[in-house]
Each structure stands twice: as structure tokens, then as C-alpha cells.
Hints:
The complex is a heterodimer.
Chain A: H1 5-16, H2 25-36, H3 41-51, H4 55-62, E1 76-81, H5 84-102, E2 108-109, E3 115-120, E4 132-134, E5 137-139, H6 144-155, H7 172-179, H8 195-205
Parallel strand pairs in A: 1-3
Antiparallel strand pairs in A: 1-4, 2-3, 4-5
Helix pairs in contact in A: 2-3, 2-7, 3-4, 5-6
Chain B: H1 20-25, H2 30-36, H3 40-50, H4 62-67, E1 78-83, H5 93-99, H6 101-115, E2 119-124, H7 129-144, E3 153-158, H8 168-175, H9 189-192, E4 199-203, H10 204-208, H11 210-216, H12 218-222, E5 232-239, E6 245-250, H13 255-261, E7 271-275, E8 284-285, H14 295-300, E9 309-314, H15 319-333, H16 339-356, H17 363-375, H18 382-408, H19 415-418
Helix pairs in contact in B: 2-6, 2-11, 3-6, 5-7, 15-16, 15-18, 16-17, 16-18, 17-18
Amino acid sequence: MSYTPDQLQVMDSMIKRYPRSRSAIMPLLHYVQSIAGYVTNEGIELIAKLLTLETAEVNAVATFYTQYKRKPVGEYHVGVCTNTLCAVMGGDAIFAALKDHLGVENDGVTADGKVSLEHIECNAACDYAPVVMANWEFYDNQDVSSAKELVDSMRKGTPKPPTRGPNSLVTWKEASAVLAGINDGKAGEGLQAGAPSLLGLNLSKEGK
Amino acid sequence: MTKLAPVLSAHWDEKDSFTIEAYTRHSGYKASAKALAMDPDAVIQLVKDSGLRGRGGAGFPTGMKWGFIPQGDEKDHYLVVNADESEPGTCKDTPLLMANPHVLIEGCIIACHAIRAKQAFIYIRGEVTHVVRRVNQAIEDAYKAGHLGKGIDIVLHVGAGAYICGEETALLDSLEGFRGQPRLRPPFPAIAGLYARPTVVNNVESIASVPAIVANGAEWYQGMGTEKSKGTTLYSLSGHVNNPGQFEAPLGITLREILDLAGGVRTGHKLKFWTPGGSSTPLFTDEHLDVPLDYEGVSAAGSMLGTKALQIFDETTCVVRAVLRWTEFYKHESCGKCTPCREGTWWLVQILRDLENGVGTEADLAKLLDLCDNIMGRSFCALGDGATSPITSSIQYFRGEYLAHLTNGGCPFDPVKSTLFSGANA
Lengths: 208, 426
């Protein structure tokens, strides 16, 4: 695929953020992922050209970081935390149930291309365990049935909104654009903090 | 009884707490105005006097770190904020940035002024889309309000899923556009950091603590905490407790006190083991409920304060399963640069899997400890060291449980009992 002049201009502005152009490699990878849904060979070649690098150098970076996908994922990429704390509290059961429910293995995509599944590491929301992420938005305090309902809603094309995030779940490509640094105007949506984040503050107000 | 002391989290309960309007309503950006009118060295001295220490794990005095930046060297200086929160159990910077990103931006302005840097980078982990939105918007709004762009600039740099990038030199390599692998030190970042220029790398919570120190003074900050661990900090309680969450308290509070506030361990269960500061800090047990959770207290008891990530596990949890899972994490996240960590974590996983499945032997425990001995202190960075902590501490406290897997021919625990939904719909 070829890139539009607008897209090339966005990439140019990303490079200009940094004192040295090579630093833009990560936002550029997020950005090409937002266009194709994964990091394509064309994307790698373009980044190499823009930054005056060898494609092997860009590949070396793209393959180091797990968020850069080298093959298509679902429109909704679901990550179940199976690091120790979430796993023990239910993450393992949720992950096993979703594999079974969706008929996919780790890193698999459903045949309709809607949902992909991955077991992920600690996502910094342990006070909301067990945690499920979709397109890297928080779905807190999940259990087996809520997680199944979540993926079902995705397959119907009406995904449930994140518990701490925007009012509706954006697609994988749209989320990748946010990670590339593009403002989608949704920063003001959603909670400022969930109940566990406020627990100590509220107790303090009671004189504790 | 230690009283909670919300400073960073003081306004998180207001619906719009993340906006510049809310931040300004609570005297936001007054501390940076005050600091910008001060001599930079006086700002460094103030932070030194406050006793603030790094909140990312190591506890290095923040003001001293700033003081290491050479002055009058005619080179560009950089501030890099480590927002790559990914130590298992750690969940403080993420809610902080979700609820109040402006306090970090104001802290960056003050720190840049102090170390004579014109440019700051915030390196945030990539797996938190909404937090990225909030910080990005906050930076835009700070530019519009004229707090940024007049001599100090901030760029938000989004990571892409690599735990190792929380290590400061790996983070710098990543920010320069390379694979995130740690660098040999010396030279330290203060001399040759980002682009080989003098660089301060600080954790989110450390930098976010600075505006309140500038506003209220070093003495005020010194008034909280213990002799060598000053101020207030976020303790993140998770796991088998009735009410998990964030508790901002003076350094030195104990787990017993925090558990009291949280309604105790899951009803009907009792505390078995816990981490004081993430999975890289040696495990504690119910013997350690009264250890003061400050840098010295935790260290004297044989662990580390780390990120103050208090992960609580009750008696239903198999310690071998818990430790194996953490070890799989370290193996997965090892960057591969040094042999002890790359090969060592792989072998640790193989042996622990055998032990969990009851097909190992008692000699495997000695082998595990020997491997840990060869990784600890011999790895390129702290990831390898951290990988050994759960293993050595769990064998110290729960050797019998490892052996029970062998006599039982497998894990004697029912994993369903550890889940929050205990079989209800599992």
C-alpha cells in the first residue's frame, strides 16, 4: 500500500518532535500500525527511508517490542493479565475460558477478524484485579462471564465501553494512532479515577 | 496509628481532576512560577533539604541526583521521566496520571529549571491508551496556557511493551530509537545520558512530588515520614484483601495499619505472603506485618521498599505457582543482552515447572539457589537480580511447600479457591 501525502506529513511532524530523527522510530511504528493494523514490510521500508536507516535496523526495533504486531490482529485486541496476582485471582480461569469460547489459542484471531486474544503481563491496575485490556483500555474487575460477554459484544460490533477509559471502545487501529501521539479528542471522557484509586483519599476524609 | 496524608492524590475525587482548570483551581502552576523566579541551585537545595527520595524503586535522593548534572558545560541537558510503570504489582503512576497529569508537567517545569534543561521527555508505557490521551491533552493544554513553550518543552514518548525499558539506561536506548537494552555504567546518565548528554531520569511520582515541596517548603515535607525516609507516598494494596486500592501515607506506615484501613485480608482467610514493593523485592510473610514501610525498615527486614506495591496473597495461594509465574515473566522480559539473565531465567523456569508438576527432586532446590547465586550481582542490570528475589525468599520461608509438591506428585492446592469468584462461574 502507498501512503497519502497527509500521512507522510504526520510522520514528518513526528520526526520533528525529536532532537535526533532516530528517536521517532517508536511513534512511527505505532503510526504505520494504525494505518494497516500491523507493522507491514511497507511500513518498515518507509520508516527506514524517512530516518535514513537500514530496514534491518527498523526490523530490529519492531521485533523487540511486543506491542508491534507483525501480522494482523483483531479489530478488538483482548489482553488477559496472567501475571501472578491477576492469574491467581482469576486471570488464568478467564484466559482459559476465552480461548475456549473464542476457539483460538494465545495470539490467535477469530475467523471474522473481530477479536484477537493474548495473555499479557502486569498492566498497572492490580487494585482492579483481575484485569482485562482491550486495545489497551481498562476492563477492571473481570470474571469469566463478564469477559465472555465482553468478547461477545465485540463480535456483534457493539463492544462494551471500558470501565476506566473513553465512553466507547475505539478500534485497534484508532488506539494505535493515539499511541503514536495523535489526539483523538477523547481525553476528557470517562472517569478520573475508579473507586480503588480513591479508597485512601476517602478514608482520609473520614479522619483516618 | 499512622494517619493517611493525601498530597498527590488530594483532589482525585473531583470529576474533572485531570483538567487544567481543576489543577489551576487548586493553585496549580503557582509552584512552577515560584521556582522559575528562584536561582536553579536554590531549587536543587530545596529538594535536597526536603529529603525526597526516588519513588521508582531505588530510593536515591532526588535533589542529589539533580546536583550531579554538570553546570556551565555548554551542553544540552535533558530531563527524562520514567512513566514506564510495569513492575508486577505496581499501579501508582497510572492512576496518578489518569487523575492528575498536570502535577507531573508542573514538576517537569521545576526540574528542568533546576538542572538547566530546556527539554523533557515523558516515557510512558504503551499499554495504557487512555492515560496516553490524558497526558497528551495535558501537555497540549499546558502549551496553550503558556506554561510550556517558553524555554521548556515536553515530548510524550510512548513505549511499546517492554518491561526492561523501566530500567533507566534501557529506557534511554529505547528513547534514542534502539532496542531497549541497558547500558554499562559508568558513565552514569548524569554525565552521558540521552544522546550522551547530561540527563536526569526520575520516576513519575518523584517528579510529581516536587510542586508541593516547592509550594509548602522543605520543612513541611520533612515533617512527614521517618528519620531517613521523608514525606508521603502512594502505597498500592492489591490481592486477597477486602478493599484493595491506593493509600497515600507518610513513609513508615506498616502493612498491619494499611490492612486495617482496607478491611483486612479477604474475609475467612489469612495472610500467607506478600511483596513490599513489586515482584522484584523479596517476599515477606505474616511475620513482617509491623515492619515500617520505609527505605531503611524494609531493607533491614531483608527486602526492599521498591515501588510500594503491596501484593497480598492468602493461604489458598500456592507459592510455587506464584513464583513460577513471576519467573516466566522475567524470562519473557529478559532483553537477552547478558548471559546470566538470558540463560539463567530460562533454566529457572524449567526447574520451577518440574517442581510445580511434582516431577523434580529435592536437589532441584539447591540448583535453583545456585542458579540464583550466579545471576544475582552478575547480570548487566537489576532485572536479573530481581528475578532471583521471589525464588530465594520463597525457598527461605516455604521450603516445605516446594517439597510437598514432590511428595504429592503435583500441586496440592486448588487454584479455584484463590480466585475472587471461587468457582462461582469459573
